[in-house]
Amino acid sequence: MTKMASTLHFVLVHGVGGGSWCWYKIRCLMENSGYKVSCIDLKSGGIDSSDPNKVLTFEDYNQPLIDFLSTIPDHDKIILVGHSAGGLSLTHAILKFGKKIHLAIFIAATMLRLGFWTEQDVKDGVPDLSEFGDVEDVTFGNGPNEPPTSIVIKKEFQRKLAYHMSPLEDSTLASMLLKPGPIRALQGAQFKETGNDNDIDKVTRVYIKTLNDRIVKPEQQDAMIKKWAPADVYVLESDHSPMFSTPFLLFGMLIKAVASTQIKLDLLDQRPLSEH
What we know:
By secondary structure, this protein is of the alpha/beta class. The chain has ten helices and eight strands. The chain has helices at residues 24-32, 58-71, 86-97, 119-125, 155-162, 168-177, 183-187, 218-227, 242-245, 247-269; strands spanning 7-13, 36-40, 76-83, 101-107, 136-139, 150-153, 205-210, 232-236.
């Protein structure tokens, strides 16, 4: 039987309150270059009509990604790309589909090996915007005495915090499309290793740092990189949203990361059997 040729399949995952629309520039660059790319709306994100205040577990929030990955043929090489809180979605997916994922790329993203288990995990992986004042609209969908269920940056602060180096038309687009994100679900992102073949450390990871980030600050990114070291780290002079502010450079880094990973894997395959 003839073995089917592998196809690189980029799967792009948005952050809190975003949607597949966040990737419109990157998707265009990829498809114009002949790459296969899919952009996911997580539950309550993008055009998904779910109420974020009723999305209370991370598993529920991330189910659209898990469902989609389960449909991808085994001969496709999945390149998972996550932005911001989308990094948690990548980690969850790696634990579910480790064998199917060729590479995971974290862009200004929360990269914690098993999610939020300690106070340090929260300090490293959760944006702290308190220095900017009262910049978030918070909804307590389960009552005022319960933890908040959704959150969004107020419109008047969105450009300053997330898009200050991005074209004005992109921050305007974002202000029209951003939705409250299901913060209760995200805060509950705690993962466990299953002990099966989906070893979380077997999937190659790359981190793309954003040096002028006001959401996931560079020192937070450094702390996560140090704690769970990826195979490579690339650096962008970007705000929190390089898919808007530096799309061509980001696209180039994504392709470079894939090529570099493939070269390393090829070199490993060429070692004598005694070294494997």
